[in-house]
What we know:
Blueprint: E1 12-16, H1 19-30, E2 33-35, E3 45-50, E4 54-60, E5 90-93, H2 97-106, E6 111-115, E7 121-127, E8 133-139
Parallel strand pairs: 1-4, 5-8
Antiparallel strand pairs: 2-3, 3-4, 6-7, 7-8
Amino acid sequence: MAVAKGACLNHITRESSDIRRLANFYKEIFGFEEIESPNFVEFKTIWLNLPQTLALHLVERNPITKLPEGPYSATSPTIDPSNLPRGHHICFSVSNFDSFLESLKAKGIETFQRSLPNGKVKQVFFFDPDGKFFKLVCVI
C-alpha cells in the first residue's frame, strides 16, 4: 500500500451559522487575510489565509441539519474548561506569547492557562465566537 508522498496541510474548514462574525474574529485575533473564494450557489463561504502557514475555509452551516455549533456553543450559559486539554482544538504557536495573551484579555476574551508538568511548555486555551476552542503553545 502506497503512502501519500509530499503530503502537507492544504486547509481547514469550519462550519458556522455566522461566517462573517467568525471571519472577523480570525482576522482580528490571528491576522488572517480574506482571499477570493468561489461563489457556491447552495451556501456562502469566506476563505481566509494566514500567509505561508494555513488556509481556513469558513462555510455557512446548513440550517436544516439543526446540529449544534459544538460542545461549547456560543449560546451555552457556561463554558467548562475542565476538559480543555483533551478536546478537539486548533493549536497555534506565536512568537509574542505574553503580549498576545494580554491582547486577548484586553479584547475581553476569557483564557484558561495551563503549563505542562515539565514546565517547558506554556498553554493557553480560549474560545472563538462559535464556542470552538483554541490552544496557544509557547515552548520555554
